Amino acid sequence: MRALIIGAGIAGLAPAGALARDGWETTVLEQAPGPRTAGYMIDFFGPGFTAAQSLGALSNLREYGQFYTRARYVDAAGRTRAQLSMDSFLNAAGGKFFSILRPDIERGLREWVGHSTDIVQGAKVVSLDPGRYPDSGAPARVTLQDGREFGAELLIGADGIHSTVRSCLPVSAGGRQGTGPDRFLRHLGFHVFGYVFSDAALAARLGAEVLLTDSLTRQAGLYALPDGRVTFFGIVACDDPDPDTAMREDLFARFRGLGPLVDQALERRPADMYEDFVAQSVVGLWHHGRSILLGDAAYAVSPLAGQGASLAVAGAELLTRTLRERGNDLSTAFADYEAAWRPVVEEQQAAGRRNARFFVPPNRTSLLLRRGALQRMNLRGLNAFVARRAFGSVLPTKGQRAR
Ligand SMILES: Cc1cc2nc3c(=O)[nH]c(=O)nc-3n(C[C@H](O)[C@H](O)[C@H](O)COP(=O)(O)OP(=O)(O)OC[C@H]3O[C@@H](n4cnc5c(N)ncnc54)[C@H](O)[C@@H]3O)c2cc1C
């Protein structure tokens, strides 16, 4: 049985390795010419951590994992306005937590997948037929931009938030209006930037602390890596879901003046920066025929939920396990997987929307509330409750942590 996966991101690589181990002949089609190197530091915890453990991929990811001692919220004059101990967060996550660069998650998963899967780079899918099931003579088929065609008994659309596979499936946009691929997106009113650059002096200054800005309508953050690299992320309020080049430059410039270290990081912006509007996928049904959507294509939660990578791995583990347990009966497996997984991701999407004012305070009252909340947080006892409110049921309860 052949499985075709569109997209070699986290949601594409995770099912590729799992299906190959279950005996599927697995091919991944990725539009980029090589591994994607853009992106920033992600906190990896929650269901993806446990799923990576079940898949046997956790050690490949941990190899690139980083640990930070605390996050410090600093104003433009360099004064610490609030802070958060990472130890207490680690405790709230039951010890199942590390930080990792987004490209390093891909790197770890590629190493885990190894030679079990054929990964075809420079393969941009432009159209597809989702196939019919159980009709064995009707495989799913895709056509690439260069005219090549591929067919398979199972097709997974893991091609991210602007998914082409999603626009080719006869699925509804969950009641949303409009046309084009982005009709499936709920725009949250922010734009995000992220990149990695080398600056040994800045990295040494930051050390094992995460620097976050105590700022209104935008939030910048810096993490150092032990090899002298630094990763920058910035989220800024923006009502336009499709800003033009000049406006994007203007949005990027809004991080200037948030402090000398941030200014230094802005000067080091590389060409391969990650940049996108902040949105969530809203898709009425994730599957049709022999095809199913996975990861951001189906259920992007947004960087405000901080769980995109974790939910990509966890969704992949659940989908492939359900396929195995249902004897590869696609109809039953797809329906059971979607029924079990949809409530989990919808809860995370709600948490992401709730968190927006906390991550990017829109006014001075919200900023002061955030300072107060952070000062009270030690995430044990009462603050484990706060953490669970922010991240939903992806964090273990006190009883689960004790186990
Ligand atoms: C370059 C990049 C950098 C990112 N950086 C961050 C970050 O720093 N922080 C953060 O929170 N999130 C980031 N994200 C989003 C984050 O990776 C996802 O939220 C999460 O990991 C879920 O991953 P995914 O595999 O579903 O989607 P994605 O990571 O978006 O992966 C989708 C993959 O599909 C490929 N693809 C798309 N269309 C086609 C097509 N038609 N044919 C073939 N291949 C296709 C893309 O090139 C991409 O490799 C980034 C995404 C990308 C692509």
UniProtKB/TrEMBL annotation:
Domain called FAD-binding: residue spans: 3-344
GO molecular function, one term: FAD binding
Chain segments annotated as coiled-coil in the UniProt record: none
Pfam families: FAD_binding_3
InterPro entries, alphabetized: FAD-bd (IPR002938), FAD/NAD-bd_sf (IPR036188), FAD_aromatic-hydroxylase (IPR051704)
Top-rank lineage group of the source organism: Bacteria
Protein name, per record: Salicylate hydroxylase
Organism: Paeniglutamicibacter gangotriensis Lz1y
